Amino acid sequence: MNIVKVGMADLNIAKSPDHIRTTGLGSCVGVVLFDSHSKISGMAHVMLPDSSLSKGLLNVAKYANTAIPKLIEEMERAGANTRRIVAKLAGGAQMFAFTSTSDTMRIGPRNVEACRMALQEARIPIVAEDTGGNCGRTIELDSCTGMLNIRTVNQGVKEI
Amino acid sequence: MKFDQFGDFQLDVLREVGNIGAGNAATALSRLISKEIDMKVPQVKIISFDEIADFVGGNESLVVCVFLQVKGDIPGNMFFIISLPSAKKLLRELMGIETDDDEWFDEMELSALNEIGNILTGSYLSSLADFTKLNMQPSPPAVAIDMAGAILSYGLLEIGHTGDFALTIDTAFFQGNEELEGHFFLVPDPTALPQLFRALGVPLE
Predict the structure, then answer these.
(1) To probe the interface with B, which of A6, A23, A52, A140 has the most B CB atoms within 10 Å?
(2) Among the four residues A69, A81, A119, B202, which has the most C-beta atoms within 10 Å?
(3) In this structure, are residues B131 and B44 in contact, taking their beta carbons and an 8 Å threshold?
(4) Contact between residue A150 and residue A90 where contact means Cβ atoms under 8 Å apart
(5) A9–B49: do the CB atoms touch at under 8 Å?
């Protein structure tokens, strides 16, 4: 078994028995997609909600609205079937409790919202979610079972 | 502004900016705990977002961080980062707060750390503002204890719209036999750099 690593503002796919993993999600959202039949999984480390604010060269993996379609496309190319794909979300925390509530500071919840919208548009159901709060998360998906392991500093480990 | 416009001279100037700011902050820290604080040579790097946490032990390493935003002529983000044992040591030396090493931090201790971070980043920024005659206003600080990657990515969100790289000015400091070790981390908004260079009389190629 190998572990496929996904960096910040990055996406990738994995096939059973490999795992796919991203570390240190704060306000970023880890979107994982899974097709239980072909056992192909995908993961995106989404940093920002909307690519329309992008200046310069567009990194599609960075934004919720562009990363999710791209991830689906790559999974299909590898043999997954969109109609069977389900999603899990983790991350979108507010790491700092600021008194001011500027838009940047609320980016975690906005990222989660944007991911939900993009998934809805692609007609992909969200089967589990561990979002919000104020802690960082490291997530790892088992491409064989579709279980998502979530590790935090404060609240230990859980699986969704 | 493109990062590849910078030559060695510009990077040297930014290193000096880190030196001045962190030097003043280290002096303030040294006064607070009545001990000598040493500094390492500042590192100025243009790094991909993924690499930012490498300075402090990688994405998943556990750190105490005081974070604030800088507004004014040179917008950006500022971090004061120390390890958990260093934070315990600071609390001990500064406030006489004795805690078990494996105990988590209570609200009082977090508030004390936040204030220490506030004082130190404040002296970092005010020395830069004095030196450059530029307007730099720090936001109120906030403290968090978590994975370095989760924390540092906060400082990249705004510049995330313009690219996948950040310019970081990192100054590490230590006390004694590195029993107390930490970092001052400045991530200026790329759009602010021409203004900063102008204020310092540095020509841009």
Answers:
(1) A23
(2) A119
(3) no
(4) yes
(5) yes
